[in-house]
Write a structure and sequence with these properties.
The protein has 460 residues and is mostly helical. It has helices at residues 4-22, 28-32, 46-53, 56-62, 67-71, 79-83, 87-93, 106-124, 132-159, 191-208, 221-234, 238-251, 299-302, 311-315, 341-354, 358-369, 386-400, 407-416, 447-453, and strands at 75-76, 276-278, 281-282, 296-297, 316-317, 325-326, 335-336, 339-340, 423-427, 430-434. The protein contains 19 helices and 10 strands. The longest helix is centred in the N-terminal third of the chain and has 28 residues, at 132-159.
Amino acid sequence: MKSIAYKQTAFLLSAMMIICGSVFLAGCKKYLDTRPDKALEIPSTLADLQALLDNGSYMNGQFSVSFDETSADNYYYPQDIYSSFSPENKDAYVWNNLHYITFPNDWFNLYNVVNAANTILDASGKISVSGKDTITRNNVIGSALFYRAYSFLQGVFIFCPAYDSSTAGRDLGIALRLTSDITAKTTRSTVQEAYGQILTDLNQAVALLPDLPRKVYRPSRASALALLSRTYLSMRNYAAALEKATQSLQIKDALMDYNQQDINGTGPFGQFNTEVLFHNVILQPNYYGVIPYYTRVDSVLAGEYAADDLRKTAFFDYTNPPGAVFKGSYSANETFIGIATDEMWLTRAECEARTGDASGAIGTLNTFLITRWATGTYVPYVAGTAGEDLQLILQERRKELLFRNLRWMDIKRLNKEGANISLTRIINGQTYTLLPNDPRFALAIPQDIVDLTGIPQNPY
């Protein structure tokens, strides 16, 4: 067990490490020589700030989250693998990880990125620029706002109840850290306040970022619009989600033709493929539900792919029984949890259906699905009733976006729509169930954070 003092020191060191690693090795000494109670020195040029943003292993993977995907229903553990796990991983699997003190954890990981973003935002406001440097500073500020919003949104999905306009003003939100001052008091916002800050950050980012990035590990207007669409979808604001998805796709709507991919390979989709808008992966998960070696795809889900649906081969490996191992990550052998155009196509289709555009919804779905089926085998769907169309689109969303850190959010929002999705695990003959809208859908905050800051724990 790590002490609170150790964790505070580790947080400070991680902040110093990202700064040092992004500037020059020779410059690290001045940070390490600084007294712990003295404000951290920070990079002072736009090049320094961009270098900090471009620390891909830190900003795009090292400090990623896995609590929500591990809690979702895309997979199961074979009994022998489950038996080998730590108590924390066993408890997370059955939604019982309520008083954990594992370190580092998802809360720590999210706020490391938030702290980096705040450091950049605070520093950028002190740099005077003109001419071409204005574009560079806009990109730096827009990128930092994007990263902060991305982390806040992941925090909302994990630690908060599903957005409900009738209760969001009193439901417990996350800690909205908006400064790099580590002495600032930590409090929990409401869910409404959290979403308000996320939307504010992203709308500002959209106005500052270029349409597309030089490299997809950098944010862009297309990925910020896509993240806005994801945010509105989780709020069940389908008109706004449709608008932002459409705007993102107007910038980039590319889809891979799976007929042109080596779908028999162990990692058929490489890093930075044409569908990726923003690259983010899980490199060091706290929980094993995101690691294909340990997991098997839910057998009912795996059985829903038709014989001519190329995802059946591209996504699943049956050579290590029991069951299917997921191999369809959009980052080869790393777990991709970024943003891609396939998500936006399916979001657009769902929101078209929900806003009454049946022909548009089915047309969008058909355009998408023809790229996933063997050439000459796909028979386009014809619009049916509103309910039939929506269920078809939601089924395809489930089949396309598994292991993307989206299913937990989807279950929560869909249960608010009356989907009545229950989750079940069976271990040693004992059944564990998570009923729709159970308070445990807002996963527990690490107990040491609660003890250290005095913020309220989620109710159970």
